[in-house]
Amino acid sequence: MITTQFDYVAPTTLDEAVRQLSSNPDARPIAGGQGLLHSLKQTPAGPKLLIDLGLVGDLRGLKVEKDSLYIGAMATLAELL
Amino acid sequence: MKIQLTVNGQTRSGEVEPRTLLVDFLRDDVGLTGTKHACETGECGACTVLCNGKSVKSCAMLAVQASGAEVITIEGVAQDGKLSPLQEAFWECHAVQNGYDTPGLIMSLTELLGRNPDPTDQEIRSWLDGSISRITGYQNVVAAVKLAAAKMRGEAKPEEPEPGPGGIFGASIKEKESPGLIRGDAKFVGDINLPNMAHAAIKYSDQAHARLLNVDTTAAAAMPGVIRVVTGKDVAHLMPLPVVWVPQDVKSNFPPHPSGIAPGGQHVLAQDRVRYIGEQIAVVVAETRQQALDAVDHIKVEYEPLPVVTDAEAALKDGAPQLHDTIPNNLLMHGPFGDKAVTEEAIAKSEVVIKQRFHNQRMMANTIETRGAVAQFDARTGDYTLWTNVQPLYPLRLLISQYVLGIPYTKLRIIAPAFGESQGSKGYLNADQPLMLYLAKELGRPVKWQDTRKGLARSTAHGRDQVEYVTLAGTKDGRLTALSCSAYSNVGAYPVINAPGQPRTLIGRSIPGSYVIPSSYYEVFIAYTNTVPVGPLRGSGRAEATFLIERMIDLYAREIGMDPADVRRRNMVQPDQFPYENGLGWTYDSGDYPAALDKALAKIDYANLAARKEEAKQRGKRLGVGIGSYVAVAGVGPSAKMGKEGLVSGTWGTAAMWVHPTGEVTVTTGAQPHGQGQETTFAQIVSKELGVPVGMVQVRHSDTAGALYYGQASYGSRTLSVEGTAVQIAAQKIKAKVIKLAAHLFKSPEEAIVYDAPAGKIFLTYAPEQAVITLQQAAFMLWLAWDLPEGMDPGLEVTAYFDPVNFNFPFGTHVALVEVDEKSGQVDLVRYATVDDFGNVVNPAVVDAQTHGNITLGIGQALLEQVVFDENGHIATDSFSKYAIPRASQLPVFETERMVTPSPSNPLGAKGAGDVSNPPVAPAIVNAVCDALKDLGVKHIEMPLTAEKVWRAMQQAKGTSTAAGFAAAAGENR
């Protein structure tokens, strides 16, 4: 269980995520959560707001254009493999 | 925040805090408790669910993140009560042990099978690396996935039918206890929820040694939902935990206990001083577990730090910090066995003398399921009930009622629900158990507590931790002459209930191992230190003893230039020497040790490893082979012998058996299964003896309100040979009564009656077709009691006891083949072959599964696992990322084989199997690594053999320039 309190938003666009992040100094983005959730469980004090990037479509997936492979920041390791 | 998601096809919505984890939402809000709480860090996989078809660890995901998702939990896998092919395969392949890790494994592997209809062993093991299942050793899990894949492809062979009573003994039938565990509906302690239940969280000391100046609970008490905060002052009237293993032949020193009968251990909550990280200081009770955990961090403790000592040898030195005012020099006990002068003289006269220091490192059971308790008090009747995941229910009932709470024995009922992995760590009385009972009474509400992963590292007894100075002597041509061992055991800050048992008796009497050694001597100094208390861990005592003797044999063999297999063969107790008195107090009952050795060597093709060694060298690997031979005391035990060792408790087995008027049989056993399958194996014993199908035999256990006078529980590989024998005797008493009744009915002498169990009938020899009844008919007639022989009581029920005259002594040889990477020092275990002899075996698959668990724990000790304290007594290894446990892809296929030498110590001919095959594992692997590094001159490396340690040892041995700088740091490793 996590003993620190925070708010949570899940923006659906990159612009919205950036806006939320820049207007909240105590905010942290959360992607897979493997590292962040773990550290939240260890500390009594953490960020005041989590901005979930999971629904930001622009950041997801992989695409191949010409000779280049674009890997979205939210692409998962499983997708890559 | 409001969330809505689909769980197992049903829409579920709820109001959650953003911080609520998906696992907690599923368990607490949806009420699906099949998804388990375990590591809380996404490292063990016990909480795995499918989220939009992908397996996720629900402790590493917020509930809000799952909003809108489609979630499948273990409860949603079986359709209309029909198990999925994977679930069926788990059952058929004996892939379930205690079952706590089973739901997570099934969820994860369900995704694998959805992606890959025919995965290879390697693909399965690699996939399994996200889950920890040290208790199964993964092998049967891999087999289950293969079988499930075959079932799904329509290629699986149909299941073999279960044999009848005639063939049931020795058959690997499926375990009766598995389906509930596989479906996820078995209730573990964490799954028990009572009306109006409150939740507790414990404040552990964060100083290893300090005076408590002040414990300020004001802030915590003001937190939302908090009902009460209790400190040591509130429970000062409760007695400290008692100790029940007190050797009478030497002086031992324990903290005081007011009962005047038993000595004492730690208080339920610390009084004015804390002596280890994790000592319980206060407890918060709140409406929810979240609120209790939130508040516990707000308890402010003011400490006056005291000097800390964490090492047993250092604790005994002059000027060391003193832990207990009444115990000089931190010495619990100095206990010798054998004749020191004679042994020293024998050593002095010997041609070859080998000396070596070993540190059998401190380990943690680090079970997937943490310890927990639910307590209830009925104010109307004054009855207390405790649900808790412990092995010794009856002993704890006695100790908690009489020695801690001071209430009548009969007012306390203890129930062990389904419970997860123990590895021995759930065999103790812990402060939290009486504490929860106290709180339940004080608050008039049921109270539940379940430990966290960090708490487990601090509050649950650790294992091993002994330093040994060993001398082995022999002739130049390989004949052993004498063995001497001076040991220092770290018992932690307080004694657990049986604290001296392991370091003294279990290790001390076991050090000669499988060998004839004319003179042996053992002495141990048991010391208190500022560390978590230490107690038996699976393999207990025999693991330490086997390690030291098996390593010494190899060192001796190398010194005299002889093959270590030849040294073993030459010195082993021979088959015609039984019963064999080993010189330090054990009388080995039976066996053929050289045969097990030779079979194991043949399995690994020991004589022809040169080519393989060369091939490995081409790949930059050093191949090494190592042997671990063992004999392990099991079957506790002969009560009088245990009494002489200092254990204040009868250790006999018992069973109550009822044959109902319907012919169904209920057996209540003193065993307490937690993965050993006694609901099945004991039913097999009854089936064989009485000729009823196993499906008609119900095995009851784990409730002190059951039909049993007392039960000693399952530990130390005693269950089948002692409690199982009591079941057999009970069945034989039932048979005797039925034969008497039949003789009366058929007006014939008893000698003329045959109880034909395989045929399920009781008949008169000279009229088998006419004068015949079944057990059910006999039970019905005894229920009616219309026509009984004179003096016969109605009913068909008996109670049986079994107190063996001797322990039993399973034995065997394990052989490990390792490859050490020349560049990195990484050790790969490439083959592992075993030949074990557990005497007669009721269910071979159950025994094999136990063996897999034993091997995996041993591999963990040899290569990975170690508890680390810093110099201030702070524990560094309190999560799975810091305390490494073997994962599936790190392990080879275990090539297991059994011999059968029935034990004369019990009528079943059984020998223990639950933990005895752990001891040979670590020495076999360390012997193999040292063999691989032989030409460098590396003689010994202390466990765990991490790549770093092995690399340092190699560099140091090579004397390369890189090594010079590291030499000092690696010093202890040589």
What brief labels describe this structure?
heterodimer; A: 81 residues; alpha/beta; two-stranded antiparallel sheet; 3 helices; flat; B: 974 residues; alpha+beta; five-stranded mixed β-sheet
Task: Please provide a written account of the structure.
The complex is a heterodimer of chains A (81) and B (974). With 81 residues, chain A is α/β, with parallel strands linked by helices. Chain A has helices spanning 14-23, 36-42, 77-80; strands spanning 7-9, 27-30, 49-52, 62-65, 68-71. In chain A, strands 1-3-2 form a 3-stranded parallel β-sheet, with helices on one face. A two-stranded antiparallel sheet of chain A has the order 4-5. With 974 residues, chain B is an alpha+beta fold. Helix content of chain B is 29%, strand content 21%. Chain B is built from 26 helices and 33 strands. In chain B, the strands form 8 sheets. A 7-stranded mixed β-sheet of chain B has the order 8-10-6-17-14-15-16, sandwiched between helices. Chain B has a 5-stranded mixed β-sheet with strand order 2-1-5-3-4, covered by helices on one side. Chain B starts with a strand and ends with a helix. Residues 963-974 of chain B have low confidence and may be disordered. Chain A binds chain B through residues 1-8, 10, 33-34, 37-38, 40-41, 44, 50, 52, 54, 78, and chain B through 1, 17-19, 21, 24, 40-42, 54, 60-62, 64-65, 289-290, 293-294, 297.
Proportion in helices of chain B: 25-40%
The stretches of 5 or more residues of chain A where confidence is low (pLDDT under 50) are none
Helix fraction bin of chain A: 25-40%
Instruction: Describe the sheet with the most strands of chain B.
Output: 7 strands, mixed
Instruction: Describe the global form of chain A.
Output: flat
> Helix and strand succession of chain A?
EHEHEEEH
The structure class of chain A reads alpha/beta
**Class of secondary structure makeup of chain B:** alpha+beta
Q: How do the strands of the widest beta sheet of chain A line up side by side?
A: 1-3-2
**Cα shape of chain B:** globular
Oligomeric state of shown chains? heterodimer
Q: Per DSSP, what share of the residues of chain B sits in E-state strands of 2 or more residues?
A: 15-25%
What's the count of strands of chain A?
5
Number of helices of chain B: 26
Q: Per DSSP, what share of the residues of chain A sits in E-state strands of 2 or more residues?
A: 15-25%
Spatial order of strands in the largest sheet of chain B: 8-10-6-17-14-15-16
Gap between N and C termini of chain B: 59 Å
Q: Which value, in Å, is the CA radius of gyration of chain B?
A: 28 Å
Profile the largest sheet of chain A: 3 strands, parallel
pLDDT < 50 runs, ≥5 residues of chain B: 963-974
What is the helix tally of chain A? Answer: 3
